[in-house]
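ARCHIVE RECORD
Type: protein–small molecule complex
Small molecule: adenosine-5-diphosphoribose
Source of inputs: curated submission
Record status: active
Notes field left blank by submitter.
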Amino acid sequence: MTQPIVILTGAGISKESGLDTFRDADGIWAKVRIEDVATPEAFARNPARVQEFFNTRRRGLLNPNIQPNAAHRALARLEAEWPSEVVLVTQNIDDLHERAGSRNLRHIHGELLKARCASCGDVRECRADLAVAMVCQSCGEAGGLRPHVVWFGEMPFDLDAVYAALSRCGTFISIGTSGNVYPAAGFVAEARANGAHTVELNLEPSEGRTLFAEADHGPATSIVPAYVERLLKAARV
Ligand code: APR
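STRUCTURE (tokenized, with ligand):
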């Protein structure tokens, strides 16, 4: 009997699609300070600066050259062909998993292509620049529209569903994440405590390397399709 799989992805899975990671030498946090663009305090202090940071990333994501890669597609194939449930938990705010065909998806750090009104909570698609003076189409308030993205110090989304999935999965696979940011970095320990087999697929060993029963290191577009093929082949026997 094949058991459910929980997958956690981070910025490394989107790197070969042309999107920057955060903590690599050429990463986002090497160019801009978290305290200036990714906290509620930063937004209160200088909302235009925060909006511009996310507007630049949103325009980058909407560039036609940015497309899902073979790793995103392999995870969509796994979800379609695995005989049991596959839950994809992503820290990424891009939409490359959706565009590759993944459906059972939890964006625990939010979504760059959505905006939320701080006044009424309305969340809707956003594919254009956000500006401080913009008016919410739901409540008519101005000044409260923000990216529907989780900032440092805020609570990630869907954690109850994620921990429920971790409690019943047979395999936990972590892909393209440095294991630096909690609660996501703690998911492997949770899965392991519940008896799951734990796998790390990453360019290099992550902070949580000792917690994984199995690991493969290399570019995601190479090691993820190969791992998915091995999993599906083993399930067919
Ligand atoms: N293939 C596989 N892994 C890769 C590749 C690649 N081509 N390129 C880089 N990586 C790995 C790096 O070795 C690193 O371990 O991806 C990981 C990226 O780590 P981070 O830059 O820290 O990104 P992530 O783990 O997703 O960050 C978590 O921190 O800043 C917050 O909210 C932000 O969601 C983000 C969270």
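CURATOR ANNOTATION: Residues 10-12, 15-16, 21-24, 27, 91, 109, 176-178, 180-181, 202-204, 206, 219-220 surround adenosine-5-diphosphoribose (CB under 6 Å).
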